[in-house]
Amino acid sequence: MANQKLLVSSHAPYWHNGSGLSERSYNIMIAALPAVIMGIFQYGPPALGVVALSISSAMIWELIMNLLMKRQVSIGDGNAALIGLLMAMLLPATTPWWTVILGTFLAVVVGKQIYGGIGCNPLNPTLVAIAMIFLSWKGLLDFDEALVNYDLGFYMVHPLAGLKYFGVSTVSNYSLGQLLMGQYAGAIGATFGLGLIAGGVYLILRNTIRWEIPVSFLAGVFVTALLFDVSDPEKYAGPLFHLLTGYTLMGAFFLATEDSSSPVNFIPMLIYGACAGFLTVLIRNIGSFVDGTVFAILLMNVASPLIDKIRPKALGRGIKNA
Amino acid sequence: MIKKPFFGLGKPKLRYAGISDLDGKQIRDLPLPARITLLHRSAGGPQDDPIVYPGEEVRTGQKLALYETGEEYLFSTATGTISGIADAQGYAGQSFLSITIDLKPKDRWDTELEKGVKDTSLEKLLPFISHLPGISDSCFHIGRDHPLKTVIINGLDQDLLVATNQLMVRDNADNLAQGVDFLKELTGAESVVFAVPPYLKSEAEKSGAQVRVIEPLYPNASPRLLVNEILNRPVPPWEDFKDLGVGLISPEGVLALRSAAMEGKVPVTKVITVIDKDYGLTPVRARIGTPVGDILQSLNINLSQGDRLVSGGPMQGRGIYSEDTPVLHDTDAIMVQDKSRMIAPGSDPCINCGECVRACPSRIPVNMLIRLLENGLYEEAAQEYDLLSCVECGLCSYVCVMRIPIFHYIMLGKHELALTGGQEE
């Protein structure tokens, strides 16, 4: 007993599947890259500037909050960078620098850190920031106004704005291919439909996001838009148009799936996604805003803890105790 | 270590080790160690001084009464002289009486049980049963007051990388058949069900028991899930097996019963799967009470400072602090983990990704449960979020993205609840 070796002990299990938060964040960023690269390719250096500033300022806000709150420095986990990237993807390429910095402040500090950091935010931080900026400076997120000096050789009107102000006839200005390839005015990372779908499918296959949420979200959008379209085709655009424009795909794969603000049980995930999709089209078609994705998801974020109460009975629950 | 696959939807799929993972290795008999340590789990509460003393000679298979009063006893698994008696602590503060015996090179068998051979009455065997290798008190309890209706023989192993039970099924078909007959006679059980992985079906059928093939996916062989599957009725952890009239026994336990009843000898060895640092498996047969260090030495497994030693497998095993810790009658495996392969737990909060919820075989909302447990709200955790439904498989910790030691929190919660008597629903 004299020369005892000191052994490390802890509680079981002694294995782990190797997953980690950094890996998860970087995975989502990789999935978002095709859409971002397409945006930078289309809108040039200003778009790159917005993306770079957004990611870096989000990380700096995170670091500042870490230091202020005397907590472990957490910028290495990639979550702040991810918030910055998603933020940039939702902004037009001409967004002024101060808006980007303010936006990441709202996202990282107001949306996430004041609730206690990662995992504690009740709302999607990126959407909190976008919603605040949108309500405060309407012009900044009006893509037609923001991108007025761009002429990229395709029809430079944001499809949803066109739909709102010019009616259904505007739909004929966009072919399905153009919508999929992002050939319309819009946010940096939210227009390249094909890239977003590819990224989303990648995330689902890697088990990084839960497939139930994007699928039910898209189904919600599709069914609701279809019902509107059937009821009055003169007034409302078809479901495919709604699926491929605005923030729909971005919302389905990257925003509604944010871990902390979405439910985890099977049926709640379906309800959450479907309701968010339903609200999105409702706001677009009969609300006053051009795009409803942001508010629809935020509303469902609020409802998420309540919906998540619907869950299967645990082992032995619901049987009579002997 | 089984990593998360690059592409993979849904739950983790962890397969139990099969016979094929042994690479054709046969069970290796280990030499008798120089000294053994026997542990007796104290009943709890203040005890009298034990009535066994250092210097006392004991024989193999001898029944040692431990206290003046009560019926607590221990079986010596070897012949030698008692050299030390001490109190020891085990998992979750369990207190043990530890008796160290310096061994003599030759076994001398005690004949008390042998005299009664052919008299296989329950009364005669009862005192021996809970000390037989492969029988765990909590799962297999027989007595006149609680007759068994169903006996389940678990031919799968409880943890990953363990092949002990499967080996016993493969190598002992004839003896198992006798054991099953005896088990029926002894317990009067209406049915004896033999749960085995698909590749051991034909061996199990020779035993004459009713065979149930269980998909060898973790944690299907976890006792409560197994009983759930076989009885088609959930068995939550607040229900005792004995109240249901169910007994769960390992093939080794069946063989031990058979040998005690037919040969008059209490088996004193235990088959153990030793898991080395590269997750290679070696089955060995060791004397109960052998220090773990001796076993590693005979297999040339090098244990150095900072490594981890585990009694059991990688998912449910219990950490061992010292190489002197003995092998007990319910130790199925010993695992050595190199320090380079350890994954440290994280200190960040849950991000609500839901991996644990999907992995949980008990359908517990682990994401909510862990929030309460982290704040010490054990009673709320039990009432609102099904803490007590946990079957202790460890999958939640295994899949946790934030590497939260969820399983540890759950066990702590259950322990604290038991201490405060909050066991009720």
Secondary-structure blueprint of this entry?
The complex is a heterodimer of chains A (322) and B (425).
Chain A: H1 21-43, H2 45-68, H3 79-90, H4 97-110, H5 125-136, H6 143-146, H7 159-166, H8 176-180, H9 193-205, H10 212-231, H11 239-244, H12 248-255, H13 266-286, H14 293-307
Helix pairs in contact in A: 1-2, 1-3, 1-9, 2-3, 2-4, 3-4, 3-5, 4-5, 5-14, 9-12, 10-12, 10-13, 13-14
Chain B: E1 28-29, E2 35-41, E3 57-58, E4 63-65, E5 73-75, E6 80-89, E7 95-103, H1 112-115, H2 122-129, E8 150-154, H3 164-171, H4 173-187, E9 191-196, H5 201-205, E10 210-213, H6 223-231, H7 241-244, E11 246-249, H8 251-263, E12 269-275, E13 281-287, H9 292-298, E14 308-311, E15 318-320, E16 333-337, H10 355-359, H11 366-374, H12 378-384, H13 395-399, H14 406-420
Parallel strand pairs in B: 1-13, 8-9, 8-11, 9-10, 12-16
Antiparallel strand pairs in B: 2-7, 3-6, 4-5, 6-7, 12-13, 14-15, 14-16
Helix pairs in contact in B: 4-8, 11-12, 11-14
Q: How would you describe what is shown here?
A:
The complex is a heterodimer of chains A (322) and B (425). Chain A contains 14 helices and no strands. By secondary structure, chain A is mostly helical. The model of chain A has no long low-confidence stretch (mean pLDDT 91). Chain B is of the alpha/beta class and 425 residues long. Chain B has helices spanning 112-115, 122-129, 164-171, 173-187, 201-205, 223-231, 241-244, 251-263, 292-298, 355-359, 366-374, 378-384, 395-399, 406-420, and strands spanning 28-29, 35-41, 57-58, 63-65, 73-75, 80-89, 95-103, 150-154, 191-196, 210-213, 246-249, 269-275, 281-287, 308-311, 318-320, 333-337. In chain B, the strands form four sheets. In chain B, strands 1-13-12-16-14-15 form a six-stranded mixed sheet, with helices on one face. In chain B, strands 2-7-6-3 form a four-stranded antiparallel sheet, with no helix packed on it. In chain B, strands 10-9-8-11 form a four-stranded parallel sheet, with helices on both faces. The mean pLDDT of chain B is 85. Chains A and B meet through loops of A and strand 14, strand 15, helix 10, helix 13 and helix 14 of B.
